[in-house]
Design brief:
Order of helices and strands: EHEEEEHEEE
InterPro entries: 3_dmu_93_MTrfase, Glyas_Bleomycin-R_OHBP_Dase, PhnB-like
Shape: elongated
Structural class: alpha/beta
Strand content: 25-35%
Largest sheet: 4 strands, mixed
Number of strands: 8
Protein name: VOC family protein
Pfam families: 3-dmu-9_3-mt (PF06983)
Number of helices: 2
Number of domains: 2
Length: 153
């Protein structure tokens, strides 16, 4: 696999244990979603189960994201931070600009399934169609369809 071109700013997500599930979910939602690189736990690595995803670089709509499974107790790096105290906050969200109603509806349905709807789908004055959702991993998404594209399929 060729190395991904470096990106000046990259969103970094730290999951407590389900990073691989999240990466596969997110890359399935975007046409060009792609896993670019992974690092997995090796046999005998303290704290980890062999094969567990430790780190991933993936791309959604041309934007690279990086994520980890936080180090479990006994693993290298587990003592670098109080990982068990960290969680995602809706104050930080990934903003998705949709090109069509169909794209908006598909992404909203997937993100809201088992997630939490903060702002239901609506026209809020600043947008013809907008929703704010925390997905089932706790990551916050703001999904928008602008007035210029509203009504297009």
């Amino acid at each position: 696999m060729p190395a991904a071109a470096p990106q000046k700013l990259t969103t970094f997500l730290a999951f407590p244990e389900n990073a691989e599930e999240a990466v596969l979910f997110y890359t399935s939602l975007f046409e060009d979603g792609e896993v670019l690189h992974t690092i997995r736990a090796r046999a005998g690595e303290p704290g980890w189960t062999e094969g567990t995803l430790q780190h991933a670089l993936f791309s959604l709509a041309g934007q690279q994201f990086m994520c980890i499974n936080t180090p479990p107790p006994g693993a290298r790096g587990a003592d670098h931070a109080p990982w068990h105290e960290y969680s995602f906050s809706p104050a930080m969200a990934i903003y998705v600009q949709c090109a069509t109603d169909a794209e908006f509806d598909r992404i909203y349905a997937a993100m809201s399934k088992k997630g939490e709807v903060v702002m239901p789908v609506g026209s809020y004055g600043f947008s013809a169609k907008f929703a704010w959702v925390n997905d089932h991993f706790g990551v916050s998404w703001r999904i928008n369809l602008s007035a210029q594209t509203s009504g297009q399929e």
